[in-house]
Write a structure and sequence with these properties.
The chain is mainly alpha-helical. It has 2 domains: about 210 residues, 3-Layer(aba) Sandwich (Rossmann fold); about 90 residues, Tyrosyl-Transfer RNA Synthetase (Orthogonal Bundle). The chain has 13 helices and 5 strands. It has a 3-stranded parallel β-sheet with strand order 1-2-3. It has a two-stranded parallel ribbon with strand order 4-5. β4, α8 and β5 form a beta-alpha-beta unit. α4 packs parallel to α13. The chain starts with 8 loop residues before the first strand and ends in a 7-residue tail after the last helix. The relative contact order is 0.14. The mean pLDDT is about 95. It binds tryptophanyl-5'AMP. The site of tryptophanyl-5'AMP has 24 residues, from β1, α1 and α7.
């Protein structure tokens, strides 16, 4: 008899705050698509996470639907993978509470994203912002994920999830799978086009700093033309050339060309030619997904059907873990 080997599990999520950037796409989302055949994948729109920063409810609703449609347009296959909205599965908030009782105040205080965000929003340092990594750990551990495809900025949060899992397992016996981050080195951190020492971020106030994956061709090309580089005129990957290094990483990810090939292609040419090529290649790569998005976003029934199916599958895939945890900590099951 043929031996059936269970596929390893993947879980990842993206916040629905603003349209995803090229950083999100190259750093994480492309891997989500690539890994779908080899793994059992669950991909989520992290709506619960997004309210740690004040959101306009009407805008948030629109963003959740659009982000979900974008996942489908990008190639997340709702038949192959679980594509769901986090808030549609109550198990995330439930496990998060339990895990928060196994997470130390000191651990959460050391999270760099908490420190950065509290500096950015000193008027609203809420408890959710502080416990955000616990909810993220719940997302991952609920599905017994082996791998978590992310950009490098999420690595510390995954390390925390591992610490929580290890602590829980050592008290109650094997309960959670130990998750590993899955990070592609060259696209682990795509930088801002205006300040290449800073991460490209959805929330950047300067619209020229980031490419939204729904930007039109002219906007993409224009933003790349304005990208900050350096005063040399040599397209090569070298320490200190942050702007060019970033553009080379993007061009390499978009065209599959190696750094050596890129250096050869632009040897003797100026930055103008290079920036134009990066802009055009990026626009070409995003165009089919953008066209697909326009189709899907107008098909509310399809989006609704996929969301329902995703929510059901997510609930089923996670229910066992939550039941196991409730039992292990000593809660009483409702007598039948
Ligand atoms: P978020 O929404 O900020 O980003 C989504 C994904 O994009 C990656 N990313 C980048 N990668 C490369 N270069 C960049 N400039 C860049 N900017 C963002 C992020 O690393 C992430 O993989 N907390 C998460 C969402 C989340 C999650 C989870 C992720 C909630 N629960 C469980 C993994 C597992 C976040 O805010 O990602």
């Amino acid at each position: 008899m043929e031996e059936v080997i269970a596929k390893k599990r993947i879980l990842s999520a993206i916040q629905p705050t603003n349209t995803p950037t090229l950083g999100n796409y190259l750093g994480a989302l492309l891997n989500w698509i690539k890994l779908q055949d080899e793994y059992d994948c669950a991909y989520s729109i992290a709506d619960l996470h997004s309210i740690t920063v004040r959101q306009d409810p009407q805008k948030l609703r629109k963003q959740i639907t659009e982000s979900y449609a974008l996942l489908l347009a990008m190639g997340v296959d709702p038949k192959k993978s679980i594509a769901f909205v986090q808030g549609h599965n109550p198990a995330h908030a439930e496990l998060s509470w339990v895990l928060s009782c196994y997470t130390q105040f000191g651990e959460l205080s050391r999270m760099t994203q908490f420190k950065d965000k509290s500096e950015k929003h000193p008027e609203n340092i809420n408890a959710g912002l502080f416990t955000y990594p616990v909810l993220m750990s719940a997302d991952i551990l609920l599905y017994q994920a082996d791998l978590v495809p992310v950009g490098v900025d999420q690595k510390q949060h995954i390390e925390l999830a591992r610490n929580i899992a290890q602590r829980f397992n050592s008290v109650y016996g094997d309960t959670f799978t130990m998750p590993e981050p899955y990070i592609t080195k060259t696209t682990a951190k795509i930088m801002s086009l205006q300040d290449p020492t800073k991460k490209m971020s959805k929330s950047d106030e300067n619209p020229n700093a980031c490419i939204s994956i729904l930007d039109d061709r002219d906007t993409i090309v224009r933003k790349f033309k304005r990208a900050v580089t350096d005063s040399e005129a040599e397209v090569c990957y070298r320490e200190g050339k942050d702007g060019i290094n970033n553009l080379m990483s993007i061009y390499s990810a978009v065209t599959d060309k190696s750094f050596e090939e890129i250096e050869k292609e632009f040897s003797g040419k100026g930055y103008g030619d290079f920036k134009l090529a990066v802009g055009e290649a990026t626009a070409d790569m995003l165009a089919p997904m953008q066209a697909e998005f326009q189709k899907i976003i107008n098909d509310k029934k399809y989006i609704g059907d996929c969301m329902r199916e995703g929510a059901e599958k997510a609930y089923k895939a996670s229910r066992k873990t939550l039941q196991k945890v409730y039992k292990k900590v000593g809660f009483v099951e409702l007598p039948r």
